[in-house]
Specification:
Chain lengths: 143, 413
């Protein structure tokens, strides 16, 4: 599935919630609960995404030219939010990740349920993912 | 406290005075439990602001025209109302500031700079808000003075025996809050003041969490400085007061220079104005000060003891209902408290609880509440804090409890 196909899928899932805030927050937390367990040693300061109010850890590895992310957070809602990004970007190439245009946040009305603080944190997660893509891209070209 | 009084307040009628309460948040009726951060404003306060700008706006004290006279009179009437509110002896002991934070900074900078010496000690408690910690750290660093911290008991009270052991001839300032913003603990400030005075120290009381709930009599307390924020007592944001004993304020140097605070200015020598103007440099926050008078009258008309009785009932009810939930742990269980209840829920981050409750229209505070040392003391990153005001109801508390049960049911399944 392409990045945009996953985004469209997320948009259609959220549209079923009909803008109900409580349902939306529950749904986000449920998505977080489904995120595969991150290895405990990976939850280190080194892997912490800077700029988030909650603690968020993010790691990345490359397999068959696609990037695979693993993430966790100490808060359930943030874990749900980062799980959306993991779902969108898992298996994608560094090039596709770097050129991705993320429009799902606006479409699902994310600013309504994450305040200014969390928006900044979310932007930091995206930046971190793109940083990983850049690093792995440069490794690919070096080889 | 007056918890035994029969209810005399018509809460539904009081709620009608607060336009902001009558709205939906996330599709649910707003339940505002973040009153310790700032409480809401009755119509009369909001109207006073509008009325001031529509009819009376002028710069105060220097103008000779009618509007200047009206604005000056309104501004000074609030000073008199505040004087009566805290039972100060002289109106010039009431200095208008931006609020408690500025009041504490004023004392730390002015009194501290003039009277602290190397090796002196400043005592604060482990219950303090950052605004009653950092100003003292700044001046202590400058003056090579030392900060000593009074221990807190497990229930969140000041350990008076520890205070007694800290006091000595080097103690120059003791700064504690009247009531804790994170835990609600009401501190025995009269006793603390007397103990400090035995060693010749001056005492500053941070009254941010007390002004809307507790009786304040600065003469009876014999406190040297008392600080209040308007916005925590139904008044506008951006103003508040510093009360200081006249003889102390008189010997303190000005904190800021500018207009209003001077008697004569020349390039060789400037002389300063009398109290209180010596400490009110520049055009003050006139409109908010004027409207603050309405907030004082609002409290006076309801009766602080009646407000406190209603809030105490809510506090007791909330603690009782929270205790029904096994995974809830109450933080701050002092015997004397204002209407603040902090708690944590096992295995659930306070942020998640705060956001889940917001989705149901319930506004609570989550985090360290600007008291990081206190949170460290309890080994917590933060808490959820529900704080109640005169317009809150038991039904609203029920609604919060329902919300908590839902989130626990979901996350602990």
């Amino acid at each position: 599935m392409t990045i945009n196909e996953t985004q469209d899928q997320i948009i259609s899932e959220f549209s079923l919630l009909d803008g109900d805030m409580e349902m939306t927050v529950f749904y986000i937390m449920e998505l977080g609960q489904k995120l595969p367990e991150m290895n405990a040693p990976d939850k280190s300061e080194l892997n912490e995404v800077k700029g988030c109010q909650s603690k968020v850890w993010l790691t990345c590895r490359m397999e068959n030219n696609g990037l695979h992310f693993s993430a966790d957070s100490n808060t359930a809602i943030t874990k749900g939010l980062v799980s959306l990004l993991v779902r969108i970007f898992n298996g994608q190439s560094p090039d596709d990740i770097l050129s991705a245009d993320l429009y799902f946040m606006k479409k699902i009305g994310m600013e309504r349920f994450i305040g200014t603080q969390r928006s900044n944190g979310f932007a930091a997660m995206i930046k971190q993912i793109k940083m990983y893509a850049l690093v792995f891209k440069s490794q690919l070209t070096a080889h | 406290m007056s918890a035994v009084l029969t209810p005399v307040l018509n809460i539904q009628k009081i709620r009608e005075e607060f336009p902001i309460l009558h709205q939906q948040v996330n599709g649910k009726p707003l339940i505002y439990f973040d009153n310790a951060a700032t409480n809401q404003k009755p119509k009369r306060v909001i109207e006073a602001l509008t009325k001031y700008y529509q009819n009376d706006n002028a710069n105060i004290h220097r103008g000779i025209h009618t509007l200047a006279e009206r604005a000056t009179r309104a501004y000074e009437e609030t000073r008199l109302a505040m004087q009566a509110f805290i039972h100060a002896e002289h109106s010039e002991e009431i200095i208008f500031t931006r609020g408690v934070t500025e009041s504490i900074n004023l004392v730390a900078s002015s009194y501290g700079r003039a009277f602290l010496k190397e090796g002196d000690e400043i005592i604060i408690s482990g219950l303090e808000h950052h605004s009653n910690i950092v100003p003292w750290q700044l001046i202590a660093e400058e003056k090579k003075a030392t900060i000593r911290v009074i221990n807190i008991t497990p229930s969140g009270e000041i350990d008076l025996d520890h205070l007694k052991s800290l006091l000595n001839s080097k103690t120059k300032i003791v700064a504690v809050n009247h009531a804790s913003n994170s835990l609600g603990t009401i501190n025995p400030i009269k006793e603390i003041i007397a103990l400090a005075h035995d060693f010749g120290a001056v005492v500053l009381i941070d009254g941010a969490q007390a002004s809307a709930h507790l009786p304040i009599d600065v003469v009876e307390l014999d406190c040297d400085f008392y600080c209040i924020s308007s916005h925590k007592m139904y008044g506008p944001t951006g103003t508040g007061i510093l009360y200081g004993k006249k003889e102390l304020l008189e010997k303190m140097p000005p904190y800021m220079g500018g207009g209003e605070m001077i008697k004569n200015v020349s390039f060789t020598k400037t002389t300063y104005n009398d109290l209180p103007y010596k400490f009110e440099a520049g055009t003050p926050n006139i409109a908010d000060v004027v409207a603050l008078k309405e907030a004082i009258e609002f409290i006076n008309e309801l009766g602080k003891e009646n407000i406190a009785a209603h809030e105490h009932e809510l506090l007791v009810y909330a603690a009782e209902r929270l205790r029904e939930i096994p995974s809830v742990r109450l933080i701050g269980t002092a015997s004397q408290k204002v209407s603040v209840q902090s708690f944590v829920i096992e295995g659930i981050h306070p942020f998640d609880i705060g956001q889940m409750l917001d989705a149901r229209g319930v506004a609570v505070r989550t985090g360290h509440h600007c008291t990081q040392p206190l949170m460290d003391h309890f080994g917590l990153e933060g808490t959820v804090r529900a704080s109640f005001s005169v317009y809150n109801t038991k039904e609203e508390i029920d609604s919060m409890i329902d919300g908590l049960k839902r989130i626990i049911g979901f996350l602990q399944k």
